[in-house]
Amino acid sequence: NGSGCVSGAECASGLCVNGACAAVGSCIPGATCSGARGNGLACGSGADCVSGFCADGVCCNGACGGGCEACNLAGDVGGCAPRQAGTDVEGACGTATCSGSGSCAAPCTSDAQCEGGACMDGACEAGRAQGSACTASAQCKSGFCADAVCCDVACSGTCMACNVPGSEGSCAPAAPGTDPGNECGAALCVAGSRCDASCASDAECEPGASCQGGTCAGTEPNGSGCASGAECASGLCVNGACAPAGSCTAGATCSGAKGNGVACGAAADCASGVCADGVCCSGACDGPCVACNLPGLEGGCSARPAGTDAEHGCGTFTCDGAGSCLAGCRADGDCGPGTHCAGGACVPDRWQGQACARNGDCASGSCADGVCCDKACTGTCMACNAPGRVGSCTAVAASTDPGNECGASFCTGTQSCDATCSGEPECKATADCQGGTCAGTEPNGSGCASGAECASGLCVNGACAPAGSCTSGATCSGAKGNGLSCAAGADCASGVCADGVCCSGACHGACVACNLPGLEGGCSARPAGTDAEDGCGTFSCDGAGSCLAGCRGDGDCEAGRYCSGGQCLAERANGEACVLAAQCASGFCADGVCCNAGCTGTCMACNVAGRKGACAPVAPGMDPGNECGASACGGANACNFTCASGAECKTAAACSGGACVGTEPNGSGCATGAECASGLCVNGACVTAGSCTAGVKCSGAKGNGGSCVAASDCASGFCADGVCCNGACGGACEACNLPGLEGGCSPRP
Questions:
Q1: How far apart are CA 180 and CA 160, in angstroms?
Q2: Residue 419, CB half-sphere, CA atoms under 13 Å: how many?
Q3: How many Cβ atoms sit within 10 Å of the Cβ of residue 730?
Q4: For range 242-258, the mean pLDDT
Q5: Taking the complete model, does pTM exceed 0.85, yes or no?
Q6: What angle do CA 262, 297, 581 make, to 5 degrees?
Q7: What local confidence, expressed as pLDDT, does residue 695 receive?
Q8: Lowest mean pLDDT among 32-41, 45-54, 234-243
Q9: What is the spatial distance between Cα 422 and Cα 432, in angstroms, rounded to a whole number?
Q10: Residue 615 in contact with residue 607, Cβ under 8 Å?
């Protein structure tokens, strides 16, 4: 030490600092060092590094002290680089996130730049709690703004509201005798989240309407002033005046036309004046990341799930789960098909044979030997960069060993090491053929370049060493390669044994593993939506190696939970109140409660007194689903189509010839088909049987799940897969007759 030098190779210490040999560990920031560790190697302080800088646990090309930059990013280890857009690993940006250029995104320009909140006037605002006032869904932590308050769900169901006094923020049934959403025409809501189909007096109708023949109806002629369709004889109020049915146009203020969520062909069909995605919608619903027909949320303009792009309108990115396209990516799941995330941008996946740094870079999902490969290629004497076969995992040529897997021997050319030898030419240059086996000759302590030179078979940090002495961080040759089974780090050339296999590096955390199928030997992120080690609490892994801190959909939650308001909540037991099937452990929500089945059968319900939560026959004489026409249920999963007196029939029907029939002629006003002599009520008037068409509101035709030949057989106006259905159900991967789900359009397995 102290002697002049040009490089560390001249010094006994191995380190040259500012032109003089110096003690190991004396390289300081700013000094010119030779012989210390290069950029990208593990370090404890700047003195370990040639550059003089140790950042994020590795030797770095600079200080790299900003919260939005790091020196250990995958694919750029050793170089100070910007963290991905939308992240804030060090919590340096407050409510905002990193911009992707090394600084915080301030001011913000999109919700994706905010940490769990919304971008409002250039500043990130934390999501508002349920029950707080709102004007847009992006303002709410739950992602839903309904009835001017942040709500737990979209709350677009009939006679449901999110601002019911005492339940603000939770979607709940509107109080009986009210109609806050103007969904019931001249009638009012009743218990059970439905409109009252009958009346006994004017007090049971909307103000301005009267009870006529057991049904609430307006009285004002076309042209008269009105506040709602309930006042009008036509049932429709457009821009403050009673108007003929069908005259509601886009942009007009309408009351009395079809309610939100009902099938439509044009804006004129809808009370809202907006027809979007085939249903009447609460408002304009334009953009690739919003839709009005999402399952369970029909009628409300809702954000498409994060990571999707059904309309292919986000370019290389996907939707953010809050109604907008992402402007940058945090992980590969934020990118569209055929692309992956690199530096905050979604770039095309690389083909076999192209250079790569990680599995996610490749269309095949496998990066081996520095190129995209057709598979993981971790087998003995296998390589993906063999001349003429680059990109295909093939056996390396006989008498070679590019991966130094065979110790003193060579590969056979058939995916294995040669276990025998007959002479020294069959062994590596520094080994001898001893007793029919290739073995090194150098004793422990001798200098070496590979384990093939050593009698022990192991070279550690340039010296022959006893078997089992390879430790984490050391440079070893001759120990087991990555992906092979191990019990301790000393078994492995890398010095690291993780998840039962030799690993390329330390692999700690609930969302990373070194033994994933096809990726053995490389520390890789566990798939999104999993939590094999139960280390993420109620959430799951994000697919990029970390636990999620909030949820956007049910797939972000551990098994047995669903996503609501960004939190993973325990699924509800049968009999508990629900709005969506996802809230229920059984996967079924019927009649407002979690149920043990879909419960779409005739005269079946899941809220029968004393049997709540179990799909059971409704009591004789009742017909809560209006499935039996003028008759009632008979108590045995079927309608009772015979009668001895009018007392066994519904109000406005009579017992004639042993059968319940309606009495009103065609053209008369009606609320249900039970009132009509034809048995069918379409858009509030008795009509000829068979005239129920797709998209109109019919009562008296067959209920969902009943067998049909044509749409005119069904109350819904839709006949699909041989049964009356709740929608058109025309996709190749959906059906309306799946066992236990008859009558509801459901995904095929």
A1: 9
A2: 3
A3: 9
A4: 69
A5: no
A6: 115
A7: 46
A8: 32-41
A9: 10
A10: no
